[in-house]
Design brief:
The chain has 78 residues and is mostly helical. Helix content is 38%, strand content 0%. It has a domain of 38 residues. The N and C termini lie far apart (41 Å).
């Protein structure tokens, strides 16, 4: 369950709170799981290739700017 909610974007602290486990436990589970990657991800067939696609990709061009006409919390006039 921890890996499922982590893969859906829940943070480590939130995952620990939801499951009643420590952050350290969640991190250790992820480390042990990542050590098993070679068992789950076979090599590409000879002459072939493996493509991994993510469902959430973000592109940043230039600098991050706040939306226009939206007051900022750090603005003393807000």
């Amino acid at each position: 369950m921890a890996m499922k909610v982590r893969s859906e974007g829940l943070g480590i602290r939130a995952t620990g709170r939801v499951l009643g486990k420590s952050e350290g436990s969640i991190i250790n589970w992820e480390k042990r799981l990542s050590a098993q990657l070679s068992n789950w991800s076979p090599n590409a067939p000879e002459g072939g290739e493996v493509t991994v696609e993510g469902d959430e990709v973000y592109t940043r061009v230039g600098e991050n700017l706040p939306p226009r006409n939206v007051p900022r919390m750090d603005n003393p006039l807000y």
